[in-house]
Amino acid sequence: MVQPRKHREQLAPLPQTEKTSASVSVEKQKEQLRSREQKDTVTIEESKGFLEEALSGLRKKLKKQKKSQKTIPQVRDQVVLQIEKIMENGLEDSFREMTPIQKQEFKIEGEKAAIEIRTLLRSTRVKIKKVFQILLSWLSLLPGINNFFLEQEAKIKADKIMAIRDHITTKR
After folding, report:
1. Is the pTM of this model over 0.90?
2. How far apart are CA 162 and CA 82, in angstroms?
3. Which partner from 37, 77, 97, 103 sits 20 to 30 angstroms from 114, CA to CA?
4. How far apart are CA 135 and CA 118, in angstroms?
């Protein structure tokens, strides 16, 4: 017959010191992981708060800095029409060669330039150089045209516009 009691006694139990030191080191590692996770969550929460504050500040600044676009008035006075006629004079061939998108952009920029020149003409002191720069920037939208030709055209058109100004001031 088998004697189970002796067999059990022969097996020595594992020392408990090894078990406790291993479990203690595992517990320490778990505690370290928990503390790291807590630190990480705190830093994540802090960074979320910081990001939200920064974003809200930027949103406020962007709302304040929006500029309203200048709208082109539908009703133009006689002077603006004369300026536009001077500006479009001699550009028919170049205008025909443009694509529809370029034509539309050129037209809109030309109207803006004419209105800007009109506001310059209303002032008591008109600088022809400023009128020249406006015309040159508008004419530079034309594709494939020499810069010297553009400068020459801008100078001619600026002189004609200044003649309109002289005509307007003599009427007053």
Report:
1. no
2. 12
3. 97
4. 12
Task: Measure Cα distances from 39 to 34, 36, 84, 104 in Å.
Answer: 9, 5, 69, 59
Q: The tokens of 68 are what?
A: 């309203």
Q: Give the count of beta carbons closer than 10 Å to the beta carbon of residue 139.
A: 23
Structure tokens at 75: 């009703």
Parse the chain into domains and list their residue ranges.
Answer: 17-65, 78-171
Tokens 């020595």 found at: 12
- Per residue, the 3-state secondary structure of the chain, as one string, reads CCCHHHHHHHCCCCCHHHHHHHHHHHHHHHHHHHHHHHHHHHHHHHHHHHHHHHHHHHHHHHHHHCCCCCCCCCCCCHHHHHHHHHHHCCCHHHHHCCCHHHHHHHHHHHHHHHHHHHHHHHCCCCCHHHHHHHHHHHHCCCCCCCHHHHHHHHHHHHHHHHHHHHHHHHHC
The distance of Cα 121 from the centroid of its chain, to the nearest Å, equals 33
